[in-house]
Automatic annotation (TrEMBL):
GO cellular component: endospore-forming forespore
Gene: sspH
InterPro entries recorded: SASP_SspH
Protein name: Small, acid-soluble spore protein H
Keywords noted in UniProt: Sporulation
Top-level division of the source organism's lineage: Bacteria
Length: 59
């Protein structure tokens, strides 16, 4: 996923279908000047982690 699209998704009020390693995630924000996003799995919102944008997929 490219940086601009990830930023749009993170700011959107609508829930998008984004996955990381086949599991749905929520993009909290995209790190400034980096191709990394802060995400969490929808089934475990307590565990946040960083992931490379190119590993995120929108379905």
């Amino acid at each position: 996923m490219n940086r601009q699209h990830a930023e749009e998704i993170s700011k959107s009020p609508d829930m998008k279908h984004v996955t990381y390693e086949g599991k749905r995630v929520f993009i909290q924000h995209v790190h400034e000047n980096e191709d990394i996003a802060r995400v969490y799995y929808l089934d475990d919102p307590t565990e946040e982690f960083d992931v490379q944008l190119d590993l995120l997929k929108e379905e």
